Amino acid sequence: MISQFFVLSQRGDNIVFRDYRGEVQKGSAEIFFRKVKFWKEDGEEEAPPVFNVDGVNYFHVKVVGLLFVATTRVNVSPSLVLELLQRIARVIKDYLGVLNEDSLRKNFVLVYELLDEVVDFGYVQTTSTEVLKSYVFNEPIVVDAARLQPLSPASIFMQGTKRMPGTAVTKSVVANEPGGRKREEIFVDIIEKISVTFSSSGYILTSEIDGTIQMKSYLTGNPEIRLALNEDLSIGKGGRSIYDYRSSTGSGPVILDDCNFHESVRLDSFDMDRTLSLVPPDGEFPVMNYRMTQEFKPPFRINTLIEEAGPLKAEVIIKISAEFSSSITANTIVVEMPVPKYTTRVSFALDPGAVGQRTDFKEPNKKLEWGLKKIVGGSEHTLRAKLTFSQESHGNITKEVGPVNMTFTIPMYNASKLQVKYLQIAKKSSTYNPYRWVRYVTQANSYVARI
Asked: At 191, phi and psi to the nearest 5?
């Protein structure tokens, strides 16, 4: 049960506000934003997703730069409320096509109608886009997607040499194309978030993949879909590693620790031929969630060297090696490394001819930050940083720096080797041939190298 729901911009502007029960003071949005913006408790840089101020519980998630917030005075499950906020964001995006401040302001009547159907007097009714279509009748005002920054990795997917259509992630499930036509197409995204911890000598200490197969259907009549996965896919621990140290691509079957499926998925033939059958509901939904802890080939290797260069100086060398095909390009890469608290100045040196790279010394947090716009598979990039200290280092300096943390996005690549072998649509006629798009992306969840 929630009392209030509101959406704030990064500046703290209140875009959407709905008070369901009148139990929390009206200024809660301002109290929340001030608390989040100046969060300094326990040495943390960012506020946790759940906290309490003066007896009010605040829950929030950040989606494409917007803060979705719920408040309540009662004791409710945090995971339930956080999941609700994510689903509300997904439903709004399904209806508007584009989720940003501009689209929310232009469609506030539709957004409030959705919120009143999703939550009634603080209690959740439904978060299904398909069910809501029976109760919500306002038409969305389409925001020009050409002016917008890409909002997700899906917007930069490539299908061979052909770029994905511009409407791939900016289409409403209820609005028609100009002229009343509806483009028949279906999108299947395999999204993996990987967590890897390297030892100081470069060995993998822990590795895990949290993956999901997302589907978004724009097919009229809701035809049946058949989705075929790897025939050698196995579920449950046991079996050998899929990472063959003698191969650059990895080998062997795909072994998942566990998985779960959307309620619309039928598993009649899954055990026999690894095929999923379903009638996709409207909107975006997860067909399958899975987890893998079998060792896999990491996309990047991180090598770090630290040497003292005098009583008040040290030099840090960080080398990033991309261990995937040269036909694949990673983007939005950020490398961070904490340095000693008594570091006063840092000077950087990049590879000769380096383009699209930036460096920064975050003095309040005592961190080095190295940003790379893109990294092509098979390439190496090196950063050299000279540190100046305000006092001498006592003991081993490597104990006072690190670990190195890396974030990135790699379109058309997945570490688990899980594949969609084919996507079959029950044809209504011989001329019915909708567009099918299968896309892959890998993102760093926790990619850490110890020093």
From this structure: -115, 125
